[in-house]
């Protein structure tokens, strides 16, 4: 069966771009393993991420709207799948390694907190040294999964996860050390913002938070009016611009990069921080803060509620790991259990 993997690796050598990351040239894993007879190292990584518990929990973590009742709003899981689709389309067109791209995309948000960025902001304030979901995603795959053993992923996948986020900064990090080491990682970094500015706008329109006529006309003139049109235009521009750059970088052209960042800023003002949305996230933030304080005061309760804390681990780290791994509904239910009074019933 060893011939199956070697055939795939040989095909990569023959068909991928000269700037693509080939499976046979991976920098390997922290802990060496015998190779899989039928899958390349990046295919193994993709499958490990897909089957891990943190990935399944993304189904019940907020993307934009807190625990949405409608069946068609995105969650952190559907966001992840849309990022993967966009990134794979870009990678295929540029002759990059789709398996590496997919592994990075599927793992990029594993460390996201419940209640979206509201939860992240609270933990960032409470945890000594701060808290970022990017670093937590790396921590999930390196340490927390598989009862503390981690997933032992390749260095290329971990690098792509660690450098996928732009935050409020530019699409291309100014410092080389902050940019992904592979073109596949660059594809995921762009696919992330292409996916979320479009699907978050789509959800906001569906939820009646904004109307199509509210979108600045200078943005629709560049990006288009429909979700599919905007994604198609942006993906096409990434492919054209990157090919024209000779594969040295995966990027958007300046005009489209400017439009994407402008749309991101517009969403921040009119969707992410809209009064009706922000009010509920303020409540969620208090839940995160009170849960954090509870476990600092009651460290014996970690295992009672399903979290294994290592003996030498700071309490703040254990609390952040536990809370960041919670789904929205788990955090809400645990909060009720810990802080809501139970009505007295006569015997």
TrEMBL record:
Highest taxon of the source?
Answer: Bacteria
> What SMART domains does the entry give?
HDc
Q: Which SUPFAM superfamilies match?
A: HD-domain/PDEase-like
A GO molecular function assigned to this protein is:
triphosphoric monoester hydrolase activity
Q: Which InterPro entries match?
A: dGTPase, Diverse_Catalytic_Enzymes, dNTPase_2, HD/PDEase_dom, HD_domain, PHydrolase_assoc_dom
Family annotation (Gene3D superfamilies) = Hypothetical protein af1432
Domain HD per the UniProt entry, residue ranges: 76-197
An example Pfam family from this entry, by short name, is HD_assoc
- Please provide the record's keywords in A-Z order: Hydrolase
Family assignment? Answer: Belongs to the dGTPase family. Type 2 subfamily.
Give the protein name, as stated in the record.
Deoxyguanosinetriphosphate triphosphohydrolase-like protein
